[in-house]
Write a structure and sequence with these properties.
Mean pLDDT: 89
Largest sheet: 2 strands, parallel
Distance between the termini: 21 Å
Strand content: 5-15%
Low-confidence stretches: none
Order of helices and strands: HEHHEH
Structural class: mainly alpha
């Protein structure tokens, strides 16, 4: 199981910037089991990237929220993305 402290150390070792925009697309399945799940990874990324003014960007797709008449139905408090759990958490 991957811990929060291990994630923090790996982000530092990778040289993840603290002051620049960072786009992250994550497969939680590929990352492995995380203590606290995807929320822990998201918290660590936010903590690292925004430390000195950077911005964390998590791409998502919501095409599944189109209705039959092609009208967009998007509820930011309820709509799921089409790209997986991490984007939903973010």
């Amino acid at each position: 199981m991957i811990t929060k402290s291990q994630i923090r150390a790996q982000l530092q070792q990778l040289g993840v910037p603290c002051d620049k925009p960072l786009i992250v697309h994550v497969s939680l399945r590929a990352v492995g089991k995380i203590d606290g799940g995807g929320q822990t990874l998201l918290d660590c990324l936010i903590e690292r990237v925004t430390k000195r003014g950077g911005v964390l960007v998590v791409p998502s797709h919501t095409w599944a929220n189109l209705l039959n008449d092609r009208q967009i139905k998007l509820d930011m408090t309820d709509s799921k993305t089409c790209v997986g759990t991490f984007a939903d958490i973010a």
